[in-house]
Design goal:
The chain folds into two domains: 3-67, no CATH class; 79-270, Rossmann fold (3-Layer(aba) Sandwich), CATH 3.40.50. Helices cover 40% and strands 19% of the residues. The protein has ten helices and ten strands. It starts with a helix and ends with a strand.
Amino acid sequence: MTDAECVAFLQWALPRMRMRWPGFRKVRGQVRKRLSRRLRELDLASLDDYRGYLAHHPEEWPDLDACCRITISSFYRDRAVFDTLRDPVLPELARAARARGAPVVRAWSAGCASGEEPYTLSLVWNMEASRHAPGCGFDLVASDLDPVMLDRARIGCYSPAALHALPAEWVASGFEQADGAFCLRAAFRHCVRIVEQDIREEMPSGAFDLVLCRNLIFTYFEDSLQVSLLERILERLAPSGVLVLGAHEALPRGEWPLERAHGALPIFRQARR
């Protein structure tokens, strides 16, 4: 399979799954490897043969959808965003929760893959943000549709490369080494609840003070699907709650009750009261 053949196939297939080609341009190599493996499993010679197979076997489309799941992740990815969540966003949310008598700050990590993002949030909270609001807890739902990635998240062990952006003292305090991997200590895992959900079909119930939906909806899904999913996310975002997008993402066109909260960073506060 050549790169050109892969590109032509994805430009044909992605719109049929309500996804958009531009989001896959730079990560298509990951999809190409999976497509090659799937062709071998089906004993098909080419992507043209696979198109024909899809036409006669509609039950194959979910398997193609699985081939198009991008799972690139690491701890503290997009440093400026997590620095801002560390201070002032999470401390502000904690103080607001305490002021209204709420026992916890509720957060949702959508598209959590193998757990680096939600566990980064747990580290940020436990190492730094919780000091600003003693007595306030932190409850985080981490969702994804890939059971293999979720199993890795539940195990919570990572290569040294995945942790390179974390402060050294966080690595020392938050992880223990086992067989060359770094495994997150239980104290930093208890606040994270991992659930298997396809965000296109199901979302956890709100209200959430903080939602991270990065490098998922607003990168890979078609515009109309972005709009409908954002509407559903906003229904679950608390008044004055915070929504975080990926570093290179933008909100879909339209009027949204969201305002940038910290300069040009993709951090938005719900303006609806």
